Every structure is written in C-alpha cells, then in structure tokens.
C-alpha cells in the first residue's frame, strides 16, 4: 500500500465518528429539535462500549451497550425538552457536562487497558486491487455501515412519507399539529435515533479508532459534528463530504506534528477546530438569507398553546 492510500484510509477512519454523530443530529434538527449534547453522548457511548466489550469479550455486546447508552442519555434530553418544554440549548449543554462526567466514572477502571481492534474486511481478489482495492474493500464494517446509513437517511428524508412528516414538523410544528401529525412522538423518536448514532460514534472511537479508553477521548468531535450539520445545510450526503474534509484536517495536523515543522503542537492540534470555524463563516457569508435551517428548530412545542 502506498503512502497516498494509507493517508486516505486514515482520513476516512477519522471521518467516520464525525459522520455517524452528524447523521443522527441531521435527523434530530430536521425534526425541529436542537440537541447540543452530542459530545456527552459520544463520551458515554465510548466508555460503555469499551467497558461492555472488555468485560464480555464481544465487540457486538460493546456496540449494543454504546448505542443503548446514547439512547438513554437522549431519552433524558427528550424528557426535559419535549416532556417539560425546557430550554433546548441549556439542556443540551447540561447533557454534555453530565455525559463527560459519567463517562469518566464508568471508564475509571478501564483507563490504560487495550483490546484488539475490529478487523478490516478482506474481499479476496478485490482488496488487493491496485490503488482502489484498499480504498473500496479494505475498511472495517463501521465504514460501510456509515455509508449505508448516509444513503438510508438521505432516502428517508427526501423520498419517504415518514421523512416528509418529520421535515414538516421541523419546518412548522404548529401547522403540523393542526393537520393531526404526531409532533411530540416524531420528535422523541428523532431524538432517540440521534442518541443511538452518537453512541455508535463513541463506540467507533474506543473499539476501532484507538482502540482503548481514556478520559476525554472524544476531544471535541461532538462539537465538530454539530458544526458539520450546519456546514452540510442539514443534508446527509453533504454531511458525508464535510466529514471527509474535517477528518482530513484532523489527519493533517497529526502529519504536521510528525514532520516537526517547528510550529507549537497546541496550534497544530487546534487546526481541525479552526477549519470548522472558517467553514462555518464561509457558509454563513455565502448562504446569507437563504439558510436551509428548519423553521421550528429549537422552538419548544406545547400542544395546548
């Protein structure tokens, strides 16, 4: 495998957790709910996934535990924001703080422990093809799952009737309620799905990408995923392209540090987040008043009002 193929494989691996988290948030925000707790859900998913996989010896059990942890935290968020109409921004920030603390507690006994990473798929005769073989057929199952999820969500939102219902609720929940659409039920399901995706992204970090557990291993990826949703204009396929861009920025700073360019390591580590800010500024200037933001995003809905 050449240097170029190795770098591209690393970029794709760095993009997967961003994409998984962003896809869940796309669905949540298209339903009109703003959940800023992705970082916390990813952290809990990473710790629960690693702990369950280590104790059971099964990666599958670890993945299920990570998804369940993300769903559990998102259910708390749904109860606060949809059940009690609490402020979504404040609740999301609280969820992140709680998730980071809870992940440290759950993973305290597993710091420094490692386990074998999830293996890459090997398709005889295809994986060994020059150039394209490793890029198309040499990834771990999470990569193909993320690709399938991207296409599935894109179809769901654009072509299916339930997707149309979800988008209608996100655009104007008052009109949707007047038409008899189950606003709260759809939003609860969307929030739980977003939590499942965030937990799955955390599982990828601790079971595939590293693979070990350490406090703070999400390293702000949840915030990048939030920015990625805006960067992608709430569209799944654009989110996939954006994840590759931001994943590339992450890999670039690692290679820059390895090359000893003489720049402070802190400045290089900030490169992915700087790229996020620049991308958001450029998108904001270019989009102007034609923003694709859902009309009811972040607005509490109480049926009897």
Folded structure, characterized:
The chain is an all-alpha fold and 305 residues long. It has one domain. The chain is 71% helix and 0% strand. It has 13 helices and no strands. The chain has helices spanning 3-30, 38-56, 59-83, 88-106, 132-137, 141-159, 161-171, 173-178, 183-209, 221-231, 236-258, 265-269, 271-287. The protein starts with a helix and ends in an 18-residue tail after the last helix.
Task: Please give a quick description of this structure.
With 305 residues, the chain is mostly helical.
Mean pLDDT: 87
Largest sheet: none
Rg over CA atoms: 19 Å
Helical coverage, percent range: over 70%
Strand percentage lies at under 5%
Q: For the terminal residues, how far apart are their CA atoms?
A: 62 Å
In the predicted model, the low-confidence regions spanning at least 5 consecutive residues are none
- What is the β-strand count? 0
Helix count? 13
Silhouette? globular
């Amino acid at each position: 495998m050449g240097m170029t193929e190795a770098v591209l494989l690393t970029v794709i691996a760095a993009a997967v957790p961003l994409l998984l988290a962003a896809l869940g948030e796309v669905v949540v925000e298209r339903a009109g709910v703003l959940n800023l707790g992705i970082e916390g859900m990813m952290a809990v998913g990473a710790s629960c996934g690693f702990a369950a996989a280590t104790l059971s010896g099964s990666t599958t059990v670890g993945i299920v535990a990570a998804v369940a942890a993300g769903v559990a935290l998102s259910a708390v968020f749904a109860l606060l924001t949809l059940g009690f109409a609490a402020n979504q921004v404040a609740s999301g920030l609280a969820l992140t703080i709680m998730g980071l603390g809870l992940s440290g507690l759950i993973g305290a006994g597993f710091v420094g422990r490692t386990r074998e990473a999830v293996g890459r798929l090997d398709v005889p005769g295809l994986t060994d093809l020059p150039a394209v073989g490793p890029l198309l057929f040499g990834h771990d199952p999470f990569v193909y799952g993320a690709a399938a999820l991207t296409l599935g969500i894109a179809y769901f939102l654009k072509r299916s009737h339930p997707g149309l219902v979800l988008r209608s609720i996100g655009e104007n929940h008052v009109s949707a309620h007047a038409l008899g659409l189950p606003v709260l039920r759809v939003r609860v399901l969307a929030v739980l799905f977003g939590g499942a995706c965030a937990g799955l992204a955390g599982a990828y970090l601790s079971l595939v990408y590293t693979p070990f557990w350490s406090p703070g291993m999400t390293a702000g990826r949840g915030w990048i995923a939030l920015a990625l949703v805006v960067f992608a204009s709430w569209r799944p396929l654009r989110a996939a392209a954006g994840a590759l861009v931001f994943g590339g920025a992450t890999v670039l700073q690692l290679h820059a540090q390895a090359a000893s360019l003489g720049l402070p390591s802190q400045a290089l580590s900030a490169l992915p987040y700087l790229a996020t800010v620049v991308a958001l500024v450029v998108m904001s200037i270019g989009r102007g008043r034609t923003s694709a933001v859902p009309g009811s995003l972040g607005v509490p809905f109480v049926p009897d009002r």
